[in-house]
């Protein structure tokens, strides 16, 4: 006999351009009162991208007040790692939720002028940091690796899974379209299904 469908209440706290510090400040909030059963967490790219864009601007505007050095980029690494660990620790201790942590994908087609040669290396470093920190919470956190899911689907249609930025600023078409989001949902479900099967009565 098929089970009755359960109502689902979705709380979306994602914010465009948010960094890990902002997740702690603006999104965790009353999570203890909400008591979610499932939390999906995708955070980290902006911690590295925003300082990189600031450095790029400093290199072109020739304004002495916007100087940039490699140090500012390196400082993003321990700060992100510390923030991610705090985010996961709060979710583990303040809720009973299963926590899905996703890695990142490369949105730029091979050979694109928007995708410098360091993109793959930077993503591997970011993703390894996410995986390493999440492994400290393995009893509750499930890592979903999105990098291989998007391989071959970089850029926009016909084969790409990315939407055009409405601002039409060059090299900013980095957010998935409907096909991309469906692929993300499928990847998450495939990782969750075995755990849910074990938890079933």
Q: Can you walk me through this structure?
A:
- With 201 residues, the protein is mainly α.
- It has a domain of 119 residues: SGNH hydrolase (Rossmann fold, 3-Layer(aba) Sandwich).
- Helix content is 48%, strand content 6%.
- The chain has eight helices and three strands.
- The chain has a three-stranded parallel beta sheet with strand order 1-2-3, with helices on both faces.
- Helix 1 packs parallel to helix 5 and helix 5 runs parallel beside helix 6.
- The radius of gyration is 18 Å and the shape is globular.
- The mean pLDDT is 84.
What is the third-level CATH name, the topology of the domain at 35-43 and 87-196?
A: Rossmann fold
How would the global form be characterised? globular
Individual helix count:
8
Coarse structural class: mainly alpha
CATH class of the domain at 35-43 and 87-196: Alpha Beta
Largest sheet: 3 strands, parallel
Number of strands: 3
Oligomer: single chain
Name of the CATH superfamily of the domain at 35-43 and 87-196: SGNH hydrolase
Considering DSSP H and I runs of 4 or more, what fraction of the residues is helical? 40-55%
pLDDT < 50 runs, ≥5 residues: none
Strand order, biggest sheet?
1-2-3
Distance between the termini: 15 Å
Strand content: 5-15%
- Using the 3D structure, state the CATH architecture of the domain at 35-43 and 87-196: 3-Layer(aba) Sandwich
Mean pLDDT: 84
In N-to-C order, the SSE pattern is HHEHHHEHEHH
> How large is the radius of gyration?
18 Å
């Amino acid at each position: 006999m098929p089970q009755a469908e359960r109502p689902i209440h979705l709380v979306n706290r994602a914010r465009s351009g948010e960094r890990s510090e902002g997740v702690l400040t603006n999104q965790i909030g009353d999570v203890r009162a909400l008591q979610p059963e499932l939390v999906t967490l995708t955070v980290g790219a902006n911690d590295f991208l925003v300082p990189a864009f600031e450095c790029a601007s400093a290199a072109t505007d020739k304004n002495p007040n916007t100087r940039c050095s490699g140090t500012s980029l390196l400082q993003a690494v321990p700060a992100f790692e510390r923030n991610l660990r705090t985010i996961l620790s709060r979710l583990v201790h303040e809720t009973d939720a299963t926590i899905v942590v996703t890695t990142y994908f490369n949105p730029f087609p091979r050979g694109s002028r928007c995708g410098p040669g360091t993109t793959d290396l930077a993503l591997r470093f970011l993703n390894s940091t996410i995986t390493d920190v999440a492994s400290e919470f393995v009893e509750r956190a499930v890592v979903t690796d999105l990098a291989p899911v998007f391989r071959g689907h970089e850029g926009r249609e016909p084969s790409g899974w990315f939407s055009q930025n409405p601002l039409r600023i060059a090299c900013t078409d980095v957010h998935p379209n409907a096909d991309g989001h469906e692929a993300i949902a499928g990847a998450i479900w495939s990782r969750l299904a075995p755990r849910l099967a074990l938890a079933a009565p």
